[in-house]
Amino acid sequence: MTEFDQRLPSEFFDRVQGRVREMIDVEGLDAFLTDDPEDIAYLTGFFHHPSERPVAVWIEPAGRTVLLLPALELEYAQSQSARAELVSFFEFPGVTSPFAALADVVGASGRIGFSSTMKYSRLASARAAMPHVELIGSDLLMRARFVKFPEEVRLHREAARITDLMLEAGVAMVADAVTSGEDLPTEAELERHVTSAGTRTMYAEHRNVVVASLLAGGLVYSGANSAFPHGLPSVNRLRPGDTFMLSLGCAVGGRFIEGERTFVLGEPTADQRRFHDTIRDAQRVGRETICAGLECREANRLCLDVIREAGLGEFIRHRQGHGIGLGMHEAPWLEDGDGTILQAGMVVSNEPGIYVPGHAGYRISDSMLVTDVGAEALTTYPRSLDDCIIAL
Q1: pTM to 2 decimals?
Q2: Which of 22, 276, 361, 364 has the highest count of CB atoms within 10 angstroms of its CB?
Q3: Are the beta carbons of 102 and 34 closer than 8 angstroms?
């Protein structure tokens, strides 16, 4: 079996930077500055652990890309073949500002865009080091990341395959406990098991594994605990009759995927079947209606209206979905307040859910690749309740 290489070639980053340079030029900017770790990985291929020491990228439309980083990260960036000119400073806070080292190299002037996620202290430091620039907040890089290059889609597909394997591993653990007569797992035990299945698969089958903010894992919750949309795994042990949720995902080459299914342990009640079937129907409408040219807010309405028309609107707690890329949650948002038009090459989640206090939550999620004619579900684990029952 040929190993899957998670590391992207340098030519990929040349095309990424070319896309961003064109956008900088169109917006009338002289350069763009970002300290967002995901932006840095997108532009240069350098993944790092964020800390108080600034790491930032300066990119100009004329073709210069500079990566500012602490000296202790210099060899690490070189080991990742970071696609940029490297400029380092010794330590933080330093006798002089780290951004002064950047300013000395780029001779900053003009209208400079900066990532709108940049925190105030970093922005103030950059302003002080570059007194002759006009700093302008922009979401330019987030928009640049919307449409994935083919190399990124390949990484998302592999992450989807592994996410499906993690779902299978979770189901197998519970089913094996039932068959053997052993204690059913706790939520925390189940979470550790599926996380191990994901990471173990990567290290066995991949090379150049990129350790992102989350390599593999997710949320595992059962019974009333699953009525909290983002409840953390607990020591609660699964019980016969429980509804339980596996909300899983992983990142391959730093590109995320999520896949979520809701299961019933034993013969479902009428209410469990009604709740699950409603979410399955809403999620199916999402799969059938997401396509290039559709507004995010309209996709959200079409999907969630299925729940409202079933008389369960009071249990809706969140939007239909969100963008996925170098972040597990990123723009655009499939929500009433986002008029972004979906484009072919975007990856978005399709995850309607309902949450019945004191009983359980029900959510089904697939990561969808938007195409010109519709959308492809990258995660493929079965969705119907009959496929999500673990017999006792």
Answers
A1: 0.97
A2: 361
A3: no
**Quick count: other Cβ atoms within 10 Å of Cβ 15?**
11
Backbone angles phi, psi at 5, to 5 degrees: -90, 120
Query: What sign for the dihedral angle of Cα 318, 324, 330, 332?
Result: negative
Q: Is 43 helix (H, G, I), strand (E, B) or coil?
A: helix
CA 244 from centre of chain: 23
pLDDT, one tens digit per residue, over 299-358 is 999 999 999 999 999 999 999 999 999 999 999 999 999 999 999 999 999 999 999 999
Q: How distant, in Å, are the alpha carbons of 98, 183, 336 from that of 95? A: 9, 59, 48
Q: Of 108, 127, 144, at which residue does a domain stop?
A: 144
Q: Residue 63 — pLDDT band, cuts 50, 70, 90?
A: confident
Question: Within this chain, do residues 83 and 219 fall inside the same structural domain, yes or no?
Answer: no
Strands (E), the chain: 4-5, 31-34, 56-59, 65-70, 85-89, 110-115, 133-138, 206-207, 216-222, 243-252, 255-265, 321-323, 330-334, 347-350, 353-356, 360-363, 366-371, 374-377, 389-390
pLDDT value for 68: 98
User: Hey, what long-range contacts does 20-27 have (CB within 8 A, 24 or more apart)?
Assistant: 20/59, 20/140, 20/141, 20/144, 21/59, 21/60, 21/61, 21/62, 21/63, 22/61, 23/140, 23/143, 23/144, 24/59, 24/60, 24/61, 24/113, 24/140, 25/61, 27/113, 27/138, 27/140
For the segment 65-109, what is each residue's pLDDT rounded down to a tens digit?
999 999 999 999 999 999 999 999 999 999 999 999 999 999 878
Helix (H, G, I), strand (E, B) or coil at 249: strand
Whether residue 193 contacts residue 217, with contact meaning beta carbons closer than 8 Å, is answered with no
Listed residue (285, 259, 241) closest to 364, CA to CA: 259
Asked if 238 contacts 186 with a C-beta cutoff of 8 angstroms, the reply is: yes
Co-location of 105 and 59 in the same domain: yes
| Tokens coding 20 | 């961003």
Which stretch of DSSP H or E encloses residue 74? helix 74-79
> Domain residues for 27?
4-144
